[in-house]
Amino acid sequence: MGYIDLPEFAKLAQEFVEATSPLVSGRTINIMNLDGIIIASTEKERIGTYHHGARMAALTGVPVLITKENKAQYPGAKEGYNLPICENGKIIGVIGMYGAERETADAANLLRVYVTQFLQQHTKYREEAFENELRNQLLNLYLLGKGEHKDEISQLSSMISLHLEFPLVLFAVTFSKRDEAARQLHKTAEEIGRIVSKASSVTSGDLYGIRDNSVMILHSAGKGWQKKEAEDTFPADEDDGLPDTLFTELQSFVKEHEGVRLCISHLCDSLDELNEAYREVLVLQRGKNRVAWAETPQNHFNYFLYRLESHGGKPFADRKMKQLRQKMDKGQLKILFDTARCYYEQDGSVQKAAAILNIHKNTLQYRMKRLYESLHMEKYPSFEREFFIRMLLAFYGDDV
After folding, report:
1. Residue 167: closest CA among 124, 216, 204
2. Which end of the chain is least crowded, N or C, by CB within 10 Å?
3. Considering the entire predicted model, what is its pTM?
């Protein structure tokens, strides 16, 4: 039997005959499988019955015309024209239209072309959907980072003709707002797929899929990445020189699409490291930067702070925030937090931070002193003060 026997194609065929019948003056249209069984018809009561004319058309590859004179030779058939449906030179089914030859021949031939294209398109869609599912399964196995999955990873990789080579880096393209992700995620995945296909032609392969409301890409890092790792010169932006084409394309994509963010893990030399890389990009997504790279100093620090939160640092931070909220209102607290953030981003330079905030340096020092005192940290060493305040900025910066 041909593949149009499959239930999903019977459903598609029924949709096709119902949509096209009005275009041919409401004539009866049937689609039959290679055994002559009607799988779709505008006369639904005939679905599942035998059509001998279709069976002969499928066997011979020649159109079968059924007339009043020869109808008795074709059990289960009515007058009409029945033509084989072919794909790549192979008969996959038969389409029939009720009526005399002179009335139906041209229209039936046209419908045969239409139904062939219709089924081809849906076959392609089904194959793409199946491959996407395999890609997602493979991505999930990689991100688990467990050696016992090596055989399964190898099998799935062979099925989609993909070969990843270590070291690998994980990209996560996501949305700043969760409701945007729900509407745009699949469209973004298609665009990212095109970028990956274009940029990966000179690499050993890249794997992408949807996970955790993000499009995640496992990228086989080339020599450019390894050189930057060896030189410890990972760029913060494109002016520092990006390691390869894919990174350049993804960063351009982020800049062109409002509300889209890109997070990048460290370079992974083995399967065991990939689960940590996955945790890294999830943590980096909590920040504000449009592009966040685990290898940059600022993101290193933020990553460890967020990991501290997940391992018990939150209760301590909650107590410190409670102290602050008891001593000042939300507006005052925001001013102090914004001042501290700028101060630390400028590596503790009072002059630079004051210039950016457009305040006198004495005002900046006063604000920092007030923050220390409110936290009872005025006698703490400077490193400890900075660490705890940075922790508060990371945990509560958007919700003071």
Report:
1. 204
2. N
3. 0.60
At residue 242's C-alpha, the angle toward residues 250 and 193, to 5°, is 20
Start-end of H helices in the chain = 7-20, 52-60, 101-144, 150-159, 178-199, 223-231, 245-256, 274-284, 297-308, 314-327, 330-345, 350-357, 361-374, 382-396
Helix axes 178-199, 245-256, angle to 10 degrees: 150
User: What's the pLDDT tens digit per position in 346-397?
Assistant: 989 999 999 999 999 999 999 999 999 998 888 889 988 988 898 888 778 6
User: Nearest-5° angle of CA 60, CA 64, CA 91?
Assistant: 40
Q: Whole-angstrom Cα distance, residue 162 to residue 6?
A: 29
Retrieve residue 345's tokens.
């981003």
Q: Provide the residue count of the chain.
A: 400
Strand-pair category, 291-293 with 260-264? parallel
CA distances from 149 to 8, 144, 168, 265, 269 (A): 32, 9, 17, 21, 17
